[in-house]
Amino acid sequence: MITRQHFGKWMILTWLLPTLGLICFVALQTISGHFGKRYVDAWAWVCVTSMPMIGILLVVGIPAGVKKAINISGFHLFVALSVSIIYWMLVGATILLSPYSSWDIVELMTISNFWLAPMQCIVGACLGFAFSAPEKK
């Protein structure tokens, strides 16, 4: 069992830390001119990749921490954490495998939405399920 407050904290950390790393990486790549004139496309990808879940967590996760302590099953944390980690592994693979792709990095970022968007939907469903889970006594 875990409290909903602890669950919210874990999920916010699971999404904020990789998002900050991604922003730093893309900022350095933009400053170095790696994206050329397509830096707007790269930043659009960063926003689509991370901001929807960050928004959900800020709207749902933080208020969950202010309410009274509600215990939920640890299984909810395990599932949400697992699919979030898998999602961030796919994001990392998109960037790390770009030198081995026939597409340039910005094209690969755009194409990666075909596998990242469905996965992001699954993560969102898992988060919604966990934050709306009934109290476990």
Layout of strands and helices, then pairs:
Layout: E1 2-3, H1 4-31, H2 39-66, E2 71-72, H3 74-96, H4 105-111, H5 113-131
Helix pairs in contact: 1-2, 1-3, 2-5, 3-5
> Approximately how much helix is present in the residues?
over 70%
Radius of gyration: 17 Å
Uncertain residue segments: none
Largest sheet descriptor: 2 strands, antiparallel
Structural class: mainly alpha
**What is the straight-line distance between the termini?**
9 Å
Shape call: elongated
Descriptive account of the structure:
This protein has helices spanning 4-31, 39-66, 74-96, 105-111, 113-131; strands spanning 2-3, 71-72. It is mainly α and 137 residues long. It has a two-stranded antiparallel ribbon. Helix 1 (4-31) packs parallel to helix 3, helix 2 runs parallel beside helix 5 and helix 3 packs antiparallel against helix 5 (113-131). The relative contact order is 0.19.
Keywords:
two-stranded antiparallel sheet; 5 helices; mainly alpha; single chain; 137 residues
Summary of the model, kept short:
By secondary structure, this protein is mainly α. 77% of the residues lie in helices and 3% in strands. It has a two-stranded antiparallel sheet with strand order 1-2.
